[in-house]
Amino acid sequence: MADLRFKNSDKRIAARNILCIGRNYRKHAEELGNKVPSSPVVFMKPVSSIIQDGGQIELPAFSEDVHYETELVLLIGKKGKNIPQSEAMAYIEAYGVGLDLTARDVQSTLKEKGLPWTIAKGFDSAACLSSFVDADAFDGNESLHFSMLLNGETKQTGDTSYMIFSIPYLISYLSSIFTLDEGDIIFTGTPEGVGPLHTGDAISVSLEDLTSAEFKVA
Ligand code: MG
User: Fold this and answer.
1) Which of 43, 91, 130, 143 is deepest in the core (most CB within 10 A)?
2) To the nearest whole number, what is the mean pLDDT of the chain?
3) Residue 36: pLDDT above 90?
4) How far apart are CA 101 and CA 127, in angstroms?
5) Cα 23 to middle of ligand 1, angstroms
6) What is the largest distance, in Å, between two alpha-carbon atoms of the chain?
């Protein structure tokens, strides 16, 4: 179990399901040669894959090509099923920024075979999370910016206004399949600019000037 940390607060919430959206930014879908989807691509990671700010990324021995994918992360704060888009924002407890680490070589092989991505997406340390910021800090209408630096160089910048599927749509859609509840985490998809990690890399991610996180690759 992972107790999710909050910025400048002793508040903790136990992590529950980790739901992830693939291909939610047009340019990223294109950079991997994927079609822009007509409905969200959904996959999951196990809770055991979480590391938090200051944690160490362990590259799995079974992959030669682990990629970072920098994403806005939503933390759900209450139970909901079949949530209408008009009410979806009220289910967000907090926002964070994270890395959806992906063993790209393994994923490519699995994709070719039409097999699930779990191994490529669910290994230890594959879900890297910042501390969370209470959703009260946002009015729900503004677009959110996030960025990622690799060894001091900006590699990804994201803006939620470029999402194919909006945050309210994603919450509504996911809640039509899974009962959402406190502690559920939603990775909302990566913008373009993904790339490989190597031993010794230092990563810094930030969401506006509200929260950030540092990770080292072992
Ligand atoms: Mg992703």
Assistant:
1) 130
2) 95
3) no
4) 6
5) 7
6) 45
